[in-house]
Design a protein that fits this description.
722 residues; six-stranded parallel β-sheet; flat
C-alpha cells in the first residue's frame, strides 16, 4: 500500500493514515509517498509513486493531497499499475462547478487505466480481518461480523468511536463519499461474498443507480441481512405534480418500495440500525411468530406482550403439558401461563428450569426473556443459563435486561453468546420481529419477478406497443404531452385493460349520435389537456338518458369550461357508455428518476389525495405476490372483500389491471405519469372509467395544441341552449 501525501507532521491526515496502517497490524508493505523523501514512523519515504512501484507492485494507493493535485496522482498511479485508489481529499463536486469538472477528469483517468476508485471525499476503508485501517479515524474497531457502509464520512467516524465503547465488532467500515466510481451497489456485491460479514448496514442519502441497487440488494439478502438507514424521508423537496399519482408518490415512496421489494430492512434511526445489527448477529432465527415471554416482573411481561402484538407476533398458547410442568416447577404464586412470571425473587436456577420447559413446548417458536434488577436477581448467572438453554435446544431467544450497571455483566455474557439483548422489553420484541421479518424478506428476494415468472400470462395480456405509440405520435404531432381521456383509454385497451366505451364528439349532434350507438345511459366529459380535474369546473354530466339531454349537457359543459378556464384548448366532449358502478379504485404510475416506473394503487374517487389510502410497488422487481398484495395494504381491501353483507369485488380482475398497467409502464418509457381514476370494481369484473396520461417532455415540442378548436356550443350550437 502507498500513502500519497504522507506527512512527517503528527496530527496531519497523511501521518495518521500511515500510523493507522501500522497499528492495525497490516502485514503488507507500506510505502509513504512525499516529494521531500526521508522517513515517517520508521518507514522510508518514496518521493513519487513511480519510485514506490519500482520496489514492487502497489495494490492500493490512499491519496491525501490537495484536490488540484489528485488527478495528476491518479494519472501516475495508472501508469505504474496501481489497481485501486482511495481518495480522502475533499474539493470535488460537493464544492461547485470547478470541483465537478475536477471530479469528471479524475473518473476519466480511472476508467482509462482500468482502476477502481473509492471516493473522493471519504474517510477511507477498514477491514478488521485482513487487518487494514486505511482511514484517518482514531483507533481501530473491534473485530466482528458487521459491515457498515456510510455515505457520510462524519457519521462513519462517530459510529467508529461509538462501536468501540459499546463492544460491537465490525468486519468492515467503508466510506462512500462522492461515489464517483465505487457505490453502494458495488459495496453490497462485495460484502455479500465476504465470509467475515454476517450483517450489512448501510447509511444512504441517495442511490446512484436504482436498477443496479435492486439487483445487488436482492442477491445480498439471499446470503445475509441488509439493513438500511435512508435519510431524506420528507417530501419537502419533491416536485409538485398536477396528477394524483405525482402528488401521492413522493420521492421517498420509491425508496420504500425498493427496499421492501429487494428484501432490505429499513430503519428510521441510528439507534434502530445498530439494534437491528445486534439482532441479526443471532445464530438462530425463528421458524414462526409464536413467542413465550419469561419474566421476573409482571409489568415487563405485559409491555413485552403488547409490543409483540403491535409487531404482528403472538404469544404462544402453551400446551397443557407445558403448563402442568411449569406449575410443578415454579412457586405456587408464579404464573404458568404466557407470559410466564417466575416472580421477583427468582434466581438463575428458576430461570433455567422455566426456560427449559418452554424450550420443549411444541407451540413455542422461541423465548423473550426479561430480567429486572431485584435484590435476588443474578444477571450474569441468568444470562449464562439462558445462553446454554438456547444453544442446547437450538432456540431463538431475545432478552431485555432492564437496568444499568447491575445488568452489565449479564449483557456482556449474552452478547458473547450472540443473543440479542436490550435495555427494555419493546426493543427485545422489535428484535424478535426483525428476525421473523428477515425470513420473509429472504424468501421475497428469491421469488422471480413477474417478468421472469412462468405463470406471468395469468396476469398479463399481449400488449400492443405499436398501437399505443401511434396514439403518442398523434398527440406529440399536435404539440401536446397530456392525452385526452379517450386517447388514454385507447392506449389502455391496447394492453388488454378493460375500459368503458368512450368517443370524442365535436358537436352536440355528434354526441347524441354516439350516445344512440352506445345505448343509454351515457356520461359526458369535457375533453381538454388543460383541464385535469373535470368535475371541479362543471365539466361532467352523468346518467343522460336521451338525445335531448345529451345535447343540452354538451352545451352546458362547453359553456362551463369557457367560463372557468377561458384559455383552455377544447377538443370537444367525450361521450362514455355508463356501466354498472362498483367500488371506486385508483391505479396509477409514474417514472421515478432513480428506480424507474412506480405503481400506486388504492382507494379512488374524489378522496384519493385526501385519504391517501394507497400502496406502492416498483415495476422492475414486481412479483405476482406484489400484484396480489398491493390492495391488502389499504383500508379499501375490506370493502373489496365484501363489507356488511355486500358481495366481494372481482379481485382477480383488479389484479390483471394492476399487472397490465405495470406492463404498460415498463414497455412505454414515454409515459411520465398515469392515473386511472376511477376504476370500477364489482363482483362481475373491473374496468377503467376515466384516465389521465402525461408524456415525458420532448425537445422541440410546440407550446400549444395545433389541432384544438372550439367545439360547437352556446349561440353557435346546432341545438337549443339550456
Amino acid at each position: 500500500m502507498a500513502v500519497v501525501g504522507a506527512s512527517h507532521v503528527p496530527g496531519k491526515i497523511g501521518h495518521i493514515v500511515v500510523r493507522n496502517l501500522q497499528e492495525s497490524g497490516y502485514t503488507g508493505r507500506i510505502v509513504p509517498v512525499n516529494p521531500k523523501g526521508g522517513e515517517i514512523r520508521g518507514l522510508p519515504v518514496a518521493q513519487s509513486l513511480s519510485e514506490a512501484a519500482a520496489e514492487g507492485p502497489i495494490d492500493l494507493a490512499v491519496v491525501a493531497v490537495p484536490a488540484p493535485a489528485v488527478v495528476d496522482v491518479a494519472e501516475e498511479a495508472g501508469r505504474v499499475g496501481v489497481r485501486g485508489l482511495v481518495v480522502l481529499s475533499a474539493g470535488f463536486r460537493e464544492t461547485g462547478p470547478e470541483g465537478a469538472r475536477r471530479e469528471a477528469a479524475l473518473l476519466k483517468v480511472v476508467r482509462r487505466h482500468s482502476m477502481r476508485l473509492l471516493g473522493p471525499n471519504v474517510v477511507g476503508v477498514v477491514d478488521t480481518h485482513t487487518p487494514l485501517n486505511a482511514t484517518f479515524a482514531e483507533g481501530f474497531p473491534n473485530r466482528g461480523e458487521v459491515a457498515f457502509v456510510s455515505q457520510s464520512g462524519a457519521l462513519l467516524l462517530a459510529i467508529h468511536d461509538w462501536a468501540r465503547k459499546e463492544g460491537m465488532g465490525f468486519s468492515r467500515f467503508l466510506s462512500l463519499g462522492n461515489k464517483t466510481d465505487v457505490d453502494e451497489s458495488d459495496a453490497l456485491a462485495a460484502l455479500a461474498e465476504d465470509p467475515n460479514t454476517r450483517v450489512i448496514l448501510l447509511y444512504l442519502e441517495d442511490v446512484r443507480d436504482g436498477r443496479r441497487f435492486l439487483e445487488a440488494a436482492r442477491r445480498a439478502v439471499r446470503e445475509k441481512p441488509v439493513v438500511v438507514l435512508k435519510s431524506g424521508r420528507s417530501d419537502a423537496g419533491a416536485r409538485a405534480a398536477a396528477s394524483h399519482t405525482g402528488a401521492l408518490a413522493g420521492s421517498d415512496r420509491a425508496y420504500e418500495a425498493a427496499f421492501r421489494q429487494s428484501g432490505v430492512l429499513r430503519v428510521n434511526s441510528l439507534e434502530e440500525l445498530f439494534a437491528a445489527a445486534w439482532a441479526f448477529l443471532s445464530p438462530r432465527y425463528p421458524r414462526g411468530k409464536k413467542v413465550a415471554v419469561l419474566t421476573n416482573a409482571g409489568g415487563g411481561g405485559i409491555l413485552a406482550s403488547d409490543a409483540l402484538a403491535a409487531r404482528g407476533l403472538e404469544l404462544s398458547s402453551l400446551s397443557r403439558d407445558t403448563i402442568r410442568e411449569l406449575r410443578e416447577t415454579l412457586p405456587p404464586e408464579a404464573s404458568a401461563l404466557n407470559p410466564v412470571d417466575v416472580l421477583g425473587d427468582a434466581r438463575a436456577d428458576r430461570y433455567a428450569r422455566a426456560a427449559e420447559v418452554l424450550a420443549r413446548d411444541p407451540e413455542t417458536d422461541g423465548i423473550l426473556a426479561i430480567v429486572c434488577p431485584t435484590a435476588t436477581a443474578e444477571p450474569e448467572k441468568t444470562a449464562q443459563v439462558l445462553a446454554e438453554t438456547a444453544a442446547r435446544f437450538d432456540l431463538p431467544l431475545t432478552a431485555a435486561f432492564m437496568g444499568g450497571e447491575a445488568m452489565e455483566a449479564g449483557v456482556r455474557r449474552l452478547r458473547e453468546a450472540r443473543i440479542p439483548v436490550y435495555a427494555f422489553p419493546e426493543a427485545a420484541a422489535e428484535a424478535w420481529a426483525r428476525l421473523v421479518a428477515y425470513g420473509e424478506l429472504r424468501t421475497r428476494s428469491q421469488t422471480p419477478t413477474l417478468w421472469d415468472s412462468p405463470h406471468r400470462h395469468r396476469l398479463l395480456g399481449e400488449g400492443d406497443v405499436r398501437r399505443a405509440e401511434e396514439v403518442f405520435a398523434r398527440v406529440r404531432a399536435e404539440g401536446r404531452r397530456v392525452l385526452l381521456s379517450s386517447e388514454v383509454l385507447e392506449v389502455l385497451a391496447a394492453f388488454g385493460i378493460p375500459v368503458a366505451p368512450t368517443r370524442l364528439a365535436r358537436t352536440a349532434r355528434e354526441a347524441a349520435a354516439i350516445a344512440e350507438e352506445f345505448g343509454y345511459p351515457v356520461a359526458l366529459k369535457i375533453a381538454s389537456p388543460d383541464i385535469l380535474h373535470k368535475s371541479d369546473i362543471g365539466g361532467v354530466r352523468l346518467g343522460l338518458a336521451d338525445a335531448g339531454a345529451v345535447q343540452r349537457a354538451f352545451r352546458e359543459i362547453v359553456d362551463a369550461a369557457a367560463a372557468h378556464v377561458p384559455d383552455a384548448f377544447l377538443y370537444g366532449v367525450e361521450v362514455q357508455k355508463m356501466l354498472v358502478r362498483g367500488h371506486e379504485v385508483f391505479v396509477g404510475g409514474m417514472r421515478d428518476p432513480t428506480f424507474g416506473p412506480l405503481l400506486v394503487a388504492g382507494m379512488g374517487g374524489v378522496f384519493v389525495n385526501l385519504l391517501e389510502d394507497v400502496a406502492y410497488r416498483l415495476v422492475e422487481p414486481l412479483t405476482e405476490r406484489d400484484v396480489e398484495e398491493i390492495f391488502r395494504e389499504t383500508r379499501l381491501y375490506r370493502l373489496l372483500r365484501g363489507f356488511r353483507g355486500e358481495p366481494p369485488a372481482n379481485l382477480a380482475a383488479l389484479h390483471r389491471i394492476v399487472a397490465r398497467v405495470a406492463e404498460l409502464l415498463r414497455e412505454l418509457p414515454d409515459v411520465l405519469e398515469l392515473d386511472l381514476n376511477p376504476v370500477f370494481a364489482s363482483p362481475d369484473g373491473a374496468w377503467v372509467v376515466d384516465a389521465k396520461l402525461t408524456l415525458r417532455e420532448e425537445r422541440g415540442t410546440a407550446p400549444s395544441p395545433s389541432g384544438a378548436r372550439k367545439p360547437e356550443g352556446g349561440a353557435e350550437s346546432d341545438g337549443p341552449r339550456s
